[in-house]
Structure formats: C-alpha cells, structure tokens
Amino acid sequence: MSMAGNLRKVTGLDRVGGLRRMARLARRRPRVDLSHPARSPLGTSVVNCVTYHKGVRSPAVRDVVEAVKQVRRHDHGFVWLGLHEPTQREFSGIAELFDLHPLAVEDAVEAHQRPKLERYDDTLFAVFKTVCYVEHTELTATSEVVHTGEIMVFVGTDFVITVRHGRHGSLGPLREELEANPEQLAKGPAAVLHAIADHVVDDYLNVTDSVQTDIDQVETDVFAANGARVDPGRIYQLKRELLELKRAVAPLARPLLELTSRPIRVVDPEIQAYFRDVSDHLLRATEQIAAFDELLNSILQAHLAQVSVAQNEDMRKITAWAALIAVPTMVCGVYGMNFEHMPELHWRFGYPLVLGVIATACVTLYRGFKRNGWL
C-alpha cells in the first residue's frame, strides 16, 4: 500500500476512540517527509493554494507539497491554502502535512462551531461565523432574513489554511485586496487572520444595516392606521432571525479579546493593534443587535396594545348596537304577550305612540353612545 493509502488509513479512523489514537500518533510522529512525491493532499475541496514571499504572490506551484517545500527551503514567506467544505478523507493529508491537531481537524471538517480561538503549540485555530442578508421582496412570517456559515482558520509560522462552510463568504475578493497591499501581506499569516476577521465583522455591520430596514418597515406598518391588522408572525420571524445573528456575533468578542490582549507566538504585536479596530467594529454590531432586540420587543408590545384597543372598540360598538336593539325588542316583546288589558291597547293612537317611544329611546341612546365614542 502507498504512503498516501497509509495516510488515509490512519486519518480515516472511526469516531469511537479515534481521536485518542490520533492524538497519540500526533505526539510521536515526525514531521512529514516533503521529499516523498506521492504525498499530495490536494483534493476536490481545494479552492486555491498560493505562496507569498515578502507580501508578493509567487508563481503557481504544482501542489501544496511543492508550495510548502519552497517556503521552508527559503525560510521566509508562507502558504495560503483555501478549502471549501472538505471531507475527512480530503483533509486528512493536509492535517498530516501541517501537523494539525486532531481536535481542530474534526471541528474544521464537521463545522457547526461557535466562534472561538484555540492554541495548539505553534498553531492557532480560529472559528468565525459568517452571515449574509437574504434579499426578499416582502417580509413574511416565514421569510429567511439571515443566513450563516463558517470560516475556520489555521495559522502557523509559515502557513494559513482557511476552511469555508456555507454558500457565501467567499475569500476570493479578500485575497485580491491583500495582494494589492503587499506591505500588509508581508507581515505574515497573522495579517491574513486579521483580514479575515475584519472581513467577517464588516459583513456583520452590513447585515445589521439591512435588518434595520426590515425593522423600520415593520415599525411603520404597525403604527399605521390599520396597524392592528399586521401579522405578528412577521415580528416573531424578525426576532428569530435576529437571535441567529446574535449567536454568530456575540461569541466572537472573547476570541478578539485574546488576540488583542494576550501575547501569541504566531501573531506579531504590530498585528494585534489591528485586531483592536476589529473589536471596536464588533462592539458596534453587538450594540446594534441588542438595540434591535429591544426595539422589536417594543414594537411587539405596541402591536399587542393596538390589537387590544381595536378589540375593545369592537366590543363597545357591539354593546352599543345591542342596547339600541334591546329597546324595541323589549317593548315589542311586552305588547306581543296578547293580554287583554294593556295600556293604550284600544286607543286609536296607541300604535303610533309606542313607535314614537321606541324611536325616541333609540335616538337618545344613539346620541349618548356617539357622544362617548362608542359608535
């Protein structure tokens, strides 16, 4: 069996006890032999593999193994390897090549992680939740407003590995922006980590601005003349989507705090100053989300109050008309009992008199209800 086959056999362990065995192997195995031509971990999930020297993109290389060999041969620069939703089999060779911790590899492959920052010897593992705004012509009770994804970043002294999950959050434009600024890119893999964090947080701000438009529209509809008829499901849907956004944004505060306040071997102190700016933007997004949540609570309470007022108005109108109908019903009911001796029963003007009494009583009640706002 080839070395690549052995590698797949080792990294394709079943989940029961697999992590412990992989951890033991990681502690005792030597660095991968880059001279072996069969060791090429590139798979269908690889988006791009580029080497950078002094912030300048190097000519394309044959595969990731060749790229790592060039970087380590010259002892400067780094490799940026980008992947999209790799499988365990596709990622196993890359994990072996860069000596990645098995626990971090499992998180990168399976996704569905909270934003976090973990250190494994000389490797930094960061998880970012990406968000995008889902365009819609009209907000309904089932509209999807926010869609989330994930970006995992492995940062070492001479490599950056990005693993993206989801249909959005492409790093292609970000890579082009960094390549247009070689001075920043020359600061090493930590500069890429900062650029990704800044890119993710900027998307948070863009999404919050778009969500605010939906909230403003709902607020306008609720306080309109027929606001009581607004579907409350729209408000609940916005709150659910806002909760999804909050779960993506809020947990990132702690990882950014570690990046800005604690010394990290693979992060240059000069880069840490840039993370403070990202942290400020994250704080703004977090405050906006908290304000939106409070505003939606107020809008929901106002809507419920409007519904209660509308119901009270309907009940008053029903009660007023029931009182108006009760007067002729009562009089007609009395005279319909067919007793022989009843007031004005044999008088010529008895019938018109009774109708006049009924009309006078109804008009009096109507004016009274109208004056009090019941009708």
TrEMBL record:
Its main location: membrane. It comes from the Bacteria. InterPro entries: CorA_cytoplasmic_dom, CorA_TM1_TM2, Mg/Co-transport_prot_CorA, MgTranspt_CorA/ZnTranspt_ZntB. GO terms for cellular component: plasma membrane. It catalyses: Mg(2+)(in) = Mg(2+)(out). It is found in: Cell membrane; Membrane. PANTHER family: CORA FAMILY METAL ION TRANSPORTER (EUROFUNG). This is Magnesium transport protein CorA.
